[in-house]
């Protein structure tokens, strides 16, 4: 029987070693890509929440522009007790010099932030946002404290903004 002197080829052990290393490299690459995409999704959700919070705060700023008085619903003006439904009163003089009160209601209901003006209600939060943990309080100096807490329904990311509104003194 003749033995071949120059056997060229790959042994089974070498083939298994290369396959094992290839599987490790592919596994590490998959983990890196998965975590990168996960970070991108989280960053996008956070950016969307910040943009939504900014839009809501601009809307509230416009409503609170001439804030003269806050009336909680039901009427219970306890200091530093959180509430989720109130009326903003803007007291102006009409053309005959008599006081005229403009009223806007703000309410947190079913995870949405609702604004009612002249009998017309509208939601100022996006449908993908839950604002049910948003609260309002009146401090001892009569300032309205807004604790806007919103959550993205899809990713469960949260974002909180705190703002204080001063009452106008006329």
Automatic annotation (TrEMBL):
Transmembrane feature ranges: 12-33
The keyword Transmembrane appears for this protein: yes
GO cellular component: cell surface
Keywords, comma-separated and alphabetical: Competence, Membrane, Transmembrane, Transmembrane helix
Annotated organism of origin: Pontibacillus halophilus JSM 076056 = DSM 19796
Cell location: Cell surface
Record's keyword annotation contains Membrane: yes
InterPro entries listed in its UniProt record: N_methyl_site (IPR012902)
Domain of life: Bacteria
Any GO BP: establishment of competence for transformation
Name used for this protein in its record: Prepilin-type N-terminal cleavage/methylation domain-containing protein
